[in-house]
Amino acid sequence: MPSLTRRDIFFAVTVSPDFPRSAEGARIRRSYQLWTGTQTAVAMILVFAGWKLGRPWLALTAPYWLLAAALPAFLWARRRAQAHATAPSTVREAGLQTRTLGALQHPILQTGPFAILLAAAIYLWKRWDDIPARFPIHWDFNGVANGWAHKNFAGVFGILLGGAVLCAMLLMMNVLILHATRQISARGAAAERESRFRRTQVGVVLGSEYFLALLMAGCALLPLLNAESINGMMGGILALSLAFVTIVIVVLAHTGQGGERLAPEAAATEAAAPVGDRTSDACWKAGIFYVNRDDPAVLVEKRFGLGYTLNFGNPRSWLLLAAVVVVSAALILGLRLAK
Questions:
Q1: For 145, phi and psi rounded to 5 degrees?
Q2: Are strands 308-310 and 9-10 parallel, antiparallel or unpaired?
Q3: How many CB atoms lie within 10 A of CB 71?
Q4: Which of 7, 107, 127, 284 gives the lowest tally of CB atoms within 10 Å of its CB?
Q5: Contact predicate 287/309, CB 8 Å
Q6: What radius of gyration do the chain's Cα atoms show?
Q7: Distance in angstroms (rounded) separating the CA atoms of residues 99 and 311
Q8: 135-149: b or e for each residue (b if 16 or more CB lie within 10 Å)?
Q9: SS3 assignment, position 191
Q10: What is the DSSP secondary structure assignment for residue 85, as one 8-state letter?
Q11: E strands, 214-332, in order
């Protein structure tokens, strides 16, 4: 993560572009990586032990363990970096051109995931008589069904409706990336890298929509399969999910925040004065949460990590969070009604 941020952002602190590559910057990074690498190994042991011993709860503690261990390491590294903080350039650039994403914003491409879910719903409706009265919808670590649904509207079509809602939320994310994010560089190579970064983010979100739609459609069709076919399909779903996540991580890591890693040599030769991400360090609480009531942007680049985060000082961000909570509660209620 420390290597994926903008060159003048180091552990969520605005610094001189040369500091991350200095001796002190390298020491801070190595200490952070050593600690988080060790804790990642512990988390992997927990996952393996939970699978080997048949204790799912043990494996489920792994991400919480990793989060609890990594957060203090990040805060320690950030405190060390703050001793070398510097003020970003006060020069501001504005571009009057319209943001475009080419084929990525074509209506047909954007409606594809919903068409997949609708096709699955029509197919299930046509095969309604072939759906059993009761069918599995959840399996344990050993592939044994431990959750069941009934042949009713919520049980058969609920997963497709949930998929449509999730795809709609991802579509809204893409709209916000295009229209509610800050343009940091308005011209030159930096602006081109940032444009490619934005296209990559939109492409990843759109790809997630398609993958989610295919996943939900496949799961919705499981009641039409026999037990042997279901086991084979679940294995394929797991393999495809791991492959998709791996591809996403590789693509995002190749791009870097703001497109920083697309042309690192060119970025290193640009103006030495730090630009950062056009946000003030004081607005980043614990280096993670951005709170700025005077900033109209709803989404801003993460200072540590990949992608965007919300501006918690913007009321529209809280409306989005409220909508996510309401939708999540409705989906959980729907799953309960399906059982």
A1: -65, 130
A2: unpaired
A3: 12
A4: 107
A5: no
A6: 23
A7: 21
A8: bbbeeeeeeeeeeeb
A9: helix
A10: B
A11: 284-285, 289-290, 299-301, 308-310
Q: Are strands 289-290 and 299-301 parallel, antiparallel or unpaired?
A: unpaired
Q: Which domain holds residue 248?
A: 98-338
d(C-alpha 74, C-alpha 51), whole Å? 29
Q: For the chain, what is the mean pLDDT?
A: 84
Which tokens go with 91? 């020069």
CA distance 14 to 242: 35
Residues 179 and 107 occupy one common structural domain: yes
- Per-residue pLDDT tens digits for 279-299: 888 999 999 999 999 888 899
What does the angle CA 80 – CA 82 – CA 87 come to, to the nearest 5 degrees? 155
Q: Are 279 and 296 in contact (CB under 8 A)?
A: no
Q: Do the strands 134-139 and 9-10 form a parallel or antiparallel pair, or are they unpaired?
A: unpaired
What is the distance, to the nearest Å, from the Cα of residue 202 to the centroid of all Cα atoms in its chain?
11
DSSP code for 137: E
Query: Are the C-beta atoms of residues 12 and 78 closer than 8 Å to each other?
Result: yes
Dist CA 55 CA 98 (whole Å): 54
Pull the structure tokens for residue 246: 């791996």
52 and 140 housed in the same domain: no
CB burial class (10 A; 0-12, 13-18, 19+) of residue 305? middle
* CA nearest neighbour of 260 among 277, 273, 272, 240: 277
Number of H helices, E strands in the chain: 8, 8
Average pLDDT (69-82) is 93
Minimum mean pLDDT among 65-79, 141-155, 215-229, 316-330: which range?
141-155
Provide the sign of the torsion angle of the four alpha carbons 273, 276, 277, 278, taken in this order: negative
The residues that bridge with 284 in the sheet, in sequence order, are: 290
- Strand runs labelled E in the chain: 9-10, 13-14, 134-139, 145-150, 284-285, 289-290, 299-301, 308-310
pTM over 0.85: no
Q: Which of 54, 83, 112 is the last residue of a domain?
A: 83
Structural domain total, the chain: 2
